[in-house]
Design a protein that fits this description.
three-stranded antiparallel sheet, binds zinc ion, six-stranded parallel sheet, binds ligand BV8, 9 strands, alpha/beta, 2 domains, SIR2/SIRT2 'Small Domain', Rossmann fold
């Protein structure tokens, strides 16, 4: 592993334009449960159903219980060495972009500035009637919170399964990946589309692509480097060499 880390650090050192994609695995060491980790996420319910538009339309009360539970949990945790290392890397590379699938806001808490939250933010809420959208950091918004402007039902400001990603954010992401020369994919099972294919956009652009994850993924075989291990242990080893 040491040899791989040295080679990755060298390429990262020489890279001109660096992209990082993260998933739930980078927040795992902060104590935030992952989507597909063992033991399931919440009351053994399928998070794919709870974090989906049809799940919300069918049972908004249960979906708000799920999101309030996550908001309470995330409000009590802090960023970890993986988030910190990515924020430090941003300081070391002029042309840098972090794309995160996570909605927990821990990257910004750790100091990352150039971040695209491609699946939205758990701290954002949006009215289902008048589209009034705002941040609300209170851990628990109560069951079926209502819009102050029009009394409509509020929803979490995230991209549910079955919903399209924000086209502006998606374009910005693809534009950057098409001209980057180094990309790290960290802590994601690379199952959720279209984020899982982002590394292939970078690869097509001739970038060196590196995967850091606890387990292999459907994209491992396409990677130039793949390290199985904890993001909070491996990322600092790479970034301290830059
Ligand atoms: C869309 C917000 C168009 C909510 C999330 C093409 C092919 C197949 C399916 C589809 C497709 N296009 C669309 C779909 C459907 C769907 C999809 O991808 N389904 C999959 C599951 C098959 N995609 C969509 O619906 C997307 N929309 O494409 O629009 C469209 C429109 C209508 C109909 C069709 C298409 C929208 C996807 C966004 C969903 N919203 N989040 C919320 O979070 O509350 S995604 C959700 O999953 C989270 O954001 C999470 O981050 C993300 C991805 O999961 P991971 O981050 O990878 O987390 P996971 O638990 O899976 O893995 C963690 C990994 O970390 C593991 O591998 C583990 O080993 C590792 N790990 C653990 N600890 C550590 C670690 N690694 C390192 N260190 C550690 N310590
Ligand atoms: Zn409203």
């Amino acid at each position: 592993m040491r040899k791989q880390i040295d080679e990755i650090a060298k390429k990262l050192q020489d890279a001109k334009k660096v992209a990082v994609l993260t998933g739930a695995g980078v927040s795992a060491e902060s104590g935030v449960p992952t989507f597909r980790g063992q033991g399931g996420l919440w009351r053994n319910k399928d998070p794919m159903k709870l974090a989906s538009i049809e799940g919300f339309l069918q049972n908004p009360k249960e979906v708000w219980e799920f999101y309030n539970w996550r908001r309470e949990l995330i409000s009590k945790v802090n960023f970890n060495p993986a988030h910190k290392a990515i924020a430090e890397l941003e300081q070391k590379k002029d042309d840098f972009l972090l794309i995160t699938q996570n909605v927990d806001g821990l990257h910004k808490l750790a100091g990352s500035k150039k971040v695209i939250e491609i699946h939205g933010s758990i701290w954002k809420v949006r009215c289902t009637e008048c589209n009034n959208e705002f941040f609300d950091k209170r851990p628990n918004l109560g069951i079926l919170p209502k819009c102050e402007k029009c009394g409509g039902l509020l929803r979490p400001g995230v991209v549910f399964f079955g919903e399209s990603l924000d086209p502006v954010l998606l374009d910005k992401t693809i534009e950057f990946l098409k001209s980057c020369d180094f990309m790290m994919v960290v802590g994601t099972s690379s199952v959720v589309q279209p984020a899982a294919s982002f590394s292939m956009v970078a690869k097509e652009a001739g970038a060196t692509v590196v995967e850091i994850n606890l387990e292999k993924t459907p994209y491992t075989s396409y990677m130039d480097y793949s390290i199985q291990g904890k993001a909070g242990e491996i990322l600092p080893l790479i970034v301290e060499r830059i």
